[in-house]
Every structure is written in C-alpha cells, then in structure tokens.
Fold this sequence. Notes:
With 405 residues, this protein is α/β, with parallel strands linked by helices. The protein has 3 domains: 3-189, Rossmann fold (3-Layer(aba) Sandwich); 215-268, 2-Layer Sandwich (GMP Synthetase, Chain A, domain 3); 284-404, 3-Layer(aba) Sandwich (Rossmann fold), CATH 3.40.50.2300. The chain has helices at 14-24, 32-43, 47-52, 62-65, 67-82, 114-125, 129-149, 173-184, 193-214, 239-250, 291-303, 314-324, 340-350, 365-374, 386-404, and strands at residues 3-8, 28-29, 88-91, 105-111, 164-167, 220-224, 227-232, 258-263, 284-287, 308-311, 328-331, 355-360, 378-381. The strands form 3 sheets. The chain has a 5-stranded parallel sheet with strand order 2-3-1-4-5, covered by helices on one side. Strands 10-9-11-12-13 form a 5-stranded parallel sheet, sandwiched between helices.
Amino acid sequence: MSVITIVGAAFSNKSSVIQELANSSQYRPLAIDDIISKAVTTSGMAESKIVAAFSSKTSVFNRFTHEKERSVAHLRLALASLMSDDYFLIPGPVGFLIPEKISHVLRVCLVAELKFRIAEAMSREGIAEKNALQQIKQQDEDLSAWLKMLNKGEDPWAANLYDIVIPMDKTSVADATALILSKAASDVVAKTAHSEESLADFLLAAQVDVKLVQEGHNVVVDAHKGAITLTINKNVLMLARLEEDLKSIVEKVAGVTSVTTKIGEGFYQHDIYRRYDFEMPSKVLLVDDERDFVQTLSERLIMRDMGSAVAYDGESALSMIRDEEPEVMILDLRMPGIDGIEVLRQVKTTNPDIEVIVLTGHGTEKDKDLCMELGAFAFLQKPVDIQVLSKTLMSANEKVQSRKS
C-alpha cells in the first residue's frame, strides 16, 4: 500500500510510464492541478503565483512578499491533506515536499541521455533541435531551483534522492512500469504504524508552517507526535522575543502538544531574520534616471519595511511591469527615451490597477493636471519629505489591497 512519486527528466517518457502504471495497477495519479487548486483555496493567492513557485525565476519583490515561500507552505499542506489514501501516484517536483521519514513512499526517477531527450522533444513537439534543447534546459533549471529552495541540493538526478533511477533511453515503458510495481510491492515500502504516524506528523507540521507563514514568519517546522520543533536559520537581534512570538502562534494550532525552538546552521550567517508585515507596501517600483537619488530612496523605503525595486528609464519600467506585476509605482517625469507621461499613459492603459505616484523636480501645474487626468494617484514635487512620501505610499497600497479584497 505504498505511495509512488515519479520525477522525470524532461522528455524521458514520464507521462507514458505514469499512464501505464495507472492502466495496469491500482495506483491513481494525483494531478498537480488538484494540489495547486487546494493550495489556492487555503492561501487565497492567485493560481499563477502558486504555479510560479516551480519556476527558477524569482520576482525581484519576493524578498518582501515571500510569495514563493508562502506558495510552498500551502502546496505542502495541500499534499499532506491529500495523502491519506493509499495507492497514490504523485508525479513531478511536488513529491520532494514529502519528508524522507515517511517510509511507505517509493521515490522513482526517470532519466535519459540528452541526445535521447532532444530527439523525443523534436518528435513530440515538432520543434527544431535548438528549441528542444532550450526547453529541456529550462525545465532542468526549474527543477534544480526547486530542490535548492527546499534545501535538498541542486542536482535533480542525485541518486540519494531516490529509491530507483531508471534510464529510459535503455528501458521500455513496459519494463520500467514492471520494475516500479515490483519495488512498490516490497515490504521495505509497505505502510506501517510508524509510517502512518510520520504521515500524521507531516500534516501537522504543514498546518503549523502555514499558520506561521500567514503571520509573516519563515522557519523550519518539524513534528513528532504533537511535539513541534522550530528551527531558526537566520540571525535575529532579539532571539528570546522571536521564540516567544513563534510559540504563542504555534501553541494555538490543534494537535500541538509542545513547542521547542532551536537555532540552525544558517543562524550564524550574515542574514537577518525579517518578519514580513502584510500591511506594508511590498511591490513598489521606483522609476527615475537619477541613480543616486533612486537608490537612496529605495534604501530608505526598505528601512521602513517597504519593498521596492528600481528602474532607471521608461523602457525598463515597462518591461518590469510585464514581468514583475508591481502594485505601486513612484515615477519621475523627465527621463531619456520614454518619458514619465508616456509611461503613465501606457501603464494606465495596460495595467490600470497599478497606482502611480508621480514624483518630479520639474513638473508644472499643466503636468499635474495631465497626470491626474491620466489616472495618477498623486503628484509630488522633489525634494519630498520621506514621511509625506511614506504616507502617500501607504494610502496607495491601501487602495490596491481594498480593491483586491
């Protein structure tokens, strides 16, 4: 009654093996879409944000929003909630979320030489060799980044991550299926009372992790029969206060009998623990060609727990808007290339929900009237008092968040 997880290199016949397993056994594939859907429900986050957790690309705003970490916590909870049934077949990288101590999981990896994979991609997708190689490299990079985020190394094909590694360029789908089923029937991966307890621990740890993430904390959570251990891997100035805060949150989770905190290996590195404040602006794009000014402004906002990224011209700003989805923009008017007026016009046409604060040292009353007519949230003149700017930012952010809710 084991669970099977299958990680496959891109274009290594993983889908065919999964289909054959489903057709010839009691194993039922657990669709990644079902896991993502459940994570969307518990998190309230957009599906695109949950899906983005599997990508090697990380938003420049993530160190303020922690969207990837929040997504992973809710994916882990979704998976733990769905794993109560037997004979599950879990495809893809989500299987790496399952703790090693759950012993009734057979971890399978399907690999193949690059030449075989390129040929498969060209045949299956009808694409050129160059495009096939590009797709394969991107999927490999995504998987490597996912592993690194989970602190499991960076090599997706490391043998120690799996119970079986099958070379699909040398093995037929039928033979691979037969091998997997024979190993899954072994007593080594049979469900036991101990592995069922570990599964319950997994669910409780996931519930605690989500609760902490919702409160803006990011620590490593482990559970054992109701006893929770929290590992702090970043330095913190007031450790005792943090430990007290963590315990007060976790003790309220149903099923928790005790809470212990400890510091991990990363505690002594130069990385300061930061509790995320969900009410503060976290996706602010600063657009100004005066580099010293905009970098200083960014630093001052970060000191106030406001997350910001910087663009030095209109073209870069528009590109970042397409890729990063900022919520508030602070925009200069006089810039080389596309000026602030044109940036404002395009932003309000393509992304009207972005609130734009114009901050300029050369604006006229005519400029102000035009900007407000185009949809700017506010029009401020340089030099600006940081308190005034912060208050304006908070108001713009409140408008964004109220619209979302």
